[in-house]
Amino acid sequence: QVQLVQSGAEVKKPGSSVKVSCKASGGTFNSYAFNWVRQAPGQGLEWMGGIIPLFGTTKNAQKFQGRVTITADESTSTVYMELTSLTSEDTAVYYCARGQNYGDHVAPPFDHWGRGTLVTVSS
Amino acid sequence: QPVPTQPPSSSASPGESARLTCTLPSDINVGDYNIYWYQQKPGSPPRYLLYYHSDLDKGQGSGVPSRFSGSKDASANTGLLLISGLQSEDEADYYCMIWPSSSYVIFGGGTKLTVL
Q: Which of the residues B1, B22, B34, B48 would you substitute to probe the A interface, choosing the one with the greatest number of A C-beta atoms within 10 Å?
């Protein structure tokens, strides 16, 4: 069955960067898109961006342009999300979610999700 | 960006039906979009439930019971998640999502459903 296993919780200082990983198994890695969705404490879901490993194509939400980098390593079926210039407002659970590859576009639905990685930004 | 609006909370009794709404901004037409629905319980990741475009174009997530269904109210520019035969286990947060362009997806703010 499809599994998305994410890296463990992180505590970061303001101004630093964090890199979260998501290892996929149980499916054909290159057939799908992979997305990052975050959820601040007590808040809703926020799409950050996605990648299509087959093409290396990435799409990022406008809010995170210049701060987020999403990459994929096909050899290990792992997707990474790096977020820079962290502030306390970046404290959230970060989810990896498998989406669809529609042409070379990242598309819903997001049918499988990782358990989430808590990133805490605190001085 | 066209952010869907969801009421913060809703409630219904066991065995009854729940009708959750996802209202699109007036400058986009609900008839043009798939509406995707997700369920999230405390401490768990979201779960994909279904999408609805029309009665001829809809899809159920894997293992999702048929008592979860989608619809639209074009007059209100709103997507609907209908849950029949409510059970206590349906108590959760529900999020709608749309894909307005090939460049991004966007979630509604979510509705907390309480099963009284």
A: B48
